[in-house]
């Protein structure tokens, strides 16, 4: 399993600002290793963020997203919202982390 994501959520005037740092190598499938062999593609391809059990953000990533992607978005919410961030990568590895809006 991969390293935990860093999820921060802060509320101001009814808007929750969510910042997520995902630890992942995000291999594009175009790089070669020292022996000249192509490193197989391996990247996060589906991301889902829920707040209070409802979807607030969904994304589909491709091979062009950089290593350890950072994501920032806002939604209408309140302090205390439970935020659950989940992703699935091309090797079907999964990761889920949670945070509470402050």
From TrEMBL:
What the entry lists under Gene3D superfamilies is as follows: Immunoglobulins
Q: Which InterPro entries match?
A: Ig-like_fold (IPR013783), Ig_E-set (IPR014756), SoxZ (IPR030995), SoxZ_dom (IPR014880)
Using the record's annotation, list all stretches that form the Sulphur oxidation protein SoxZ domain: 6-99
Q: What is this protein called in UniProt? A: Thiosulfate oxidation carrier complex protein SoxZ
- Please tell me the species this chain comes from: Polynucleobacter paneuropaeus
């Amino acid at each position: 399993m991969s390293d935990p994501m860093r999820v921060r959520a802060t509320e101001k005037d009814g808007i929750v600002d969510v910042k997520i740092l995902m630890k992942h190598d995000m291999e594009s499938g175009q790089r070669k290793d020292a022996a000249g062999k192509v490193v197989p593609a391996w990247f996060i391809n589906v991301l889902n963020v829920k707040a209070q059990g409802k979807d607030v953000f969904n994304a589909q990533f491709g091979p062009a997203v950089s290593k350890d992607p950072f994501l920032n978005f806002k939604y209408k919410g309140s302090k205390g919202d439970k935020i659950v961030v989940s992703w699935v990568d091309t090797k079907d590895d999964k990761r889920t982390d949670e945070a509470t809006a402050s």
